[in-house]
Amino acid sequence: xxxxxxxEEGYGLNEDRIKxxxxxxxxxxxxxxxxxxxxxxxxLAKSLGMKVVITDHHLxxxxxxxxxxxxxADAIINPNRQDDLYPFKEFSGAGIAYKFSKxxxxxxxxxxxxxxxxxxxxxxxxxxxxxxxLRDENRIIVKEGLKVLENTNNIGLKSLIEASDLxxxxxxxxxxxxxxxxxxxxxxxxxxxxxxxxxxxxxxxNKAKNLSRELVxxxxxxxxxxxxxxxxxxxxxxxxxxxxxxxxxxxxxxxHESIVGIVAGRLKEIYNKxxxxxxxxxxxxxxxxxxxxxxxxxxxxxxxKELLISYGGxxxxxxxxxxxxxxxxxxxxxxxxxxxxxxxxxxIDVPLSLEKLSENIIGEISMLEPFGAGNSRPNFGEKNVxxxxxxxxxxxxxxxxxxxxKNSVFVDGIYFNGSEKFLENVxxxxxxxxxxxxxxxxxxxxIIYAPEINEYMxxxxxxxxxxxxxxxx
Length: 473
Known about the structure:
Blueprint: H1 6-9, H2 15-23, E1 28-30, H3 39-47, E2 51-55, E3 75-77, H4 93-107, H5 113-129, H6 136-150, H7 155-163, H8 173-190, H9 194-201, H10 205-239, E4 248-251, H11 260-271, E5 275-280, E6 285-290, H12 297-302, E7 310-313, E8 317-322, H13 327-335, E9 350-351, H14 359-366, E10 380-393, E11 399-406, E12 409-415, H15 419-430, E13 443-456, E14 459-471
Parallel strand pairs: 1-2, 2-3, 4-5, 9-10, 12-14
Antiparallel strand pairs: 5-6, 6-8, 7-8, 10-11, 10-13, 11-12, 13-14
């Protein structure tokens, strides 16, 4: 197998590597989660006498007539082809690989159940971390994959779960998306992705433990790089002229290429605008974009493709490269594809009084799992809730623990990464200057929340995961 080194080779196929693979004797090139836009690279592989099979889920580029612009591969498995009749279109790259493997075993009349669980748990991780919709078959892949993960036979995954301090927890989509997935991805972002592959396939427990510790450490380093890059990007935003841009296109020459997608996602959350963050590559600018629900960012790139070297992605995420001299024109061009700014929306599924909350209700809500993109955890609303206590927690004091009161009922709450917004709103509303070490209490608020069970040190209670709030008089 071959996985490109991001900084040296970019994402996906490249002509130099195809030539070296041919010299090494490769006769069949099988892609996973890429290849649909690699027209020249696959044409080269075919000219060298190689057979090519593409498995991909990214959107297909169109020609001037609106027809699919497909590589000259021997087979192309991609549900987003216009001529593809498969009813479900929203698989991740890992999901496509899983379905392809299952079909291959069926075609050769082999027993797929022998390896099904080992592939299903990997497909579940890939489906969650690629942030595709958890509907239809994706929901089944993740739900069944989570069951396998709880008692996994994969030595590497078991070791990574333990190294991530999750060994005593029931694994859910949060753990996949924010703990296990980022640790796996960290090797490819700031080191060598082969380390993650070696972890998945090793049969040696000591090697698995060492690799797991290394991936967890790499992820901590990645988090530090991300925070530094985010602060740098926010500085650039504050000094640049971005207020009138409906799509943010930000070039930070000091940003690490491997984490620009994460930074784009953070900026998108802050400004609620589609965001592309670019870094300086060897011969060009390389970047990633993250979008909002109302805008297909990859179609936006399609309309500016004459200014790009390469691009690809999904409606909500993209990757691209361009020459530095085209940056200004590209920023203007892509901004012409979106003519309005969308307000941030948080939907409430139903009002639910805190007095009616119970573990039974939370148990019933859990039957809707797995939660994620396309199947979000239900949000509930409650008005006129009294804040009795606040405590700012975390190393950076960026989270808040609340003690709420509604009539005669007391309930705990947690607001992750909410300190800055909460203090800003409280200080503006009351014309005060509170900080993270001050006592803030006896304030009435309306809240949007998701109820959950908090378990810690043998103590178990109902807790509100706060999604948003507004202060009332």
